[in-house]
From TrEMBL:
One of its GO terms (cellular component) is cytosol. It catalyses: XMP + L-glutamine + ATP + H2O = GMP + L-glutamate + AMP + diphosphate + 2 H(+). This is GMP synthase [glutamine-hydrolyzing]. Catalyzes the synthesis of GMP from XMP. Its EC number is 6.3.5.2. It comes from Leucobacter komagatae. Keywords: ATP-binding, Glutamine amidotransferase, GMP biosynthesis, Ligase, Nucleotide-binding, Purine biosynthesis.
């Protein structure tokens, strides 16, 4: 008897009661939770809401367009995109340690968001309504994991990257707090969001930055983006989206191996496929993707992506492996 339409109607009322005439800001990551929570708040209060999307250059192929074009078209939300690729890549230059990468990406994300926030606050003051509220796509499992605390931006640090500054003085709007992921997806569909966003696999806040083992550079990001797009398209075409929790595609940028292509010897990088099945990402098993699908992905990647001459499959469960390589 759970019904997406009812939940939407209840939440719209609750959001209107909470917000009144104040202005609201929301950080879109391109992921399901922020997309649906933002759309719900927009249904409730329209242009009192401003959504912010930070393009840190670590996104997957087509993600920015999905948000700027498809998401905006289907919701009508007022969106500000921050161009921050140069800044992020500048700070990531020379960095190889995974935790160091996470710290830098998290810190720069907050800086980018704060800059937009200052502009909006100035604008809001001019119009007489302060920005008091921040939308957060917290789900029920997040609430449980972080100890059930309410009304603060203190989500566990893992999920806070691409999430938000703890020291900003906002009241939170968390319309998904009572919901599980599949319910959030149902609500997103009911609100008419694009399937490419609603059906999206989990994707880490630090994005492709933690899927390049080694230094993150623009060239390496371009290589990984192409390989990732091929793998995703083939898995989707094979109808495997429902049986795969997520499939990180990883570039081993500091590893080279010898290959042969055409008449020539190559000395390129391996791409790792990491398809996993899971309920909650706490534990996972490697997904038994059919060999013919793996073969298609491997052929396409090695034929189409420059500098990649080998595709390997990760057959490790979690534990002992994590889902991501970094
Ligand atoms: P691991 O690699 O720890 O990943 O098995 C578990 C889940 O968390 C995601 N993940 C992250 N998400 N920021 C995020 O927002 C991060 O720094 C981060 N690291 C891992 C990962 O994609 C998987 O779904």
């Amino acid at each position: 008897d759970w019904n997406a339409g009812n939940v939407i109607a209840e939440q719209i009322e609750a959001i209107r009661a909470q917000v009144g005439n104040a202005r609201v800001i929301s950080a879109l990551s391109g992921g399901v939770d922020s997309a649906v929570s933002t759309a719900l708040v927009h249904e409730a209060i329209g242009d009192q809401l401003t959504a912010v999307f930070v393009d840190h250059g670590l996104l997957r192929k087509g993600e920015r367009e999905q948000v700027e074009r498809d998401y905006v078209a289907s919701t009508g939300v007022r969106l500000i995109t921050v161009e921050a690729e140069d800044i992020f890549l500048g700070h990531l230059a020379g960095v190889t340690d995974p935790e160091e990468k996470r710290k830098i990406i998290g810190r720069e994300f907050i800086r980018a968001f704060e800059k937009v926030q200052l502009d909006l606050v100035a604008e809001a003051k001019a119009e007489g309504e302060p920005i008091k509220f921040l939308v957060q796509g917290t789900l029920y499992p997040d609430v449980v994991e972080s100890g059930g605390g309410s009304g603060t931006a203190n989500i566990k640090s893992h999920h806070n990257v691409g999430g938000l500054p703890e020291d900003l003085d906002f009241e939170l709007i968390e319309p998904l707090r009572a919901l599980f992921k599949d319910e959030v997806r149902a609500i997103g569909r009911e609100l008419g969001l694009p399937e490419a966003i609603v059906g999206r696999q989990p994707f880490p806040g630090p994005g492709l930055g933690i899927r390049i083992v080694g230094e993150v550079t623009r060239e390496r990001l371009d290589i990984l983006r192409e390989a990732d797009a091929i793998a995703r398209a083939e898995l989707t075409a094979a109808g495997l989206d429902d049986s795969i929790w997520q499939c990180p595609v990883v570039l081993l940028a500091d590893v080279r191996s010898v290959g042969v292509q055409g008449d020539g010897r190559t000395y390129g990088h391996p791409i790792v496929l990491r398809p996993v099945s899971s309920e909650d990402a706490m534990t996972a098993d490697w997904t038994r993707v059919p060999y013919d699908v793996l073969a298609r992905i491997s052929n396409k990647i090695t034929n189409q992506v420059p500098d990649v001459n080998r595709v390997v499959l990760d057959v490790t469960s979690k534990p002992p492996g994590t889902i991501e390589w970094e």
